[in-house]
Amino acid sequence: MKTVHLQATEAGAIDQTAAFLRAGKLVVFPTDTVYGIGAAAFGKEAIAALYRAKERPMSKGIPLLLADEADVEGVAGAIPAVARQLAAHFWPGPLTLILPGRPELPDNVSPNENVAVRIPDHSVARALIRAAGGAVAASSANRTGEAPASDALTALATFDGIVAAVLDDGPAVHGEPSTIVDCTTDPPTMVRAGALSPEALGVQLAAEKDG
Question: Mean of the pLDDT values across residues 52-58?
Answer without folding.
Answer: 97
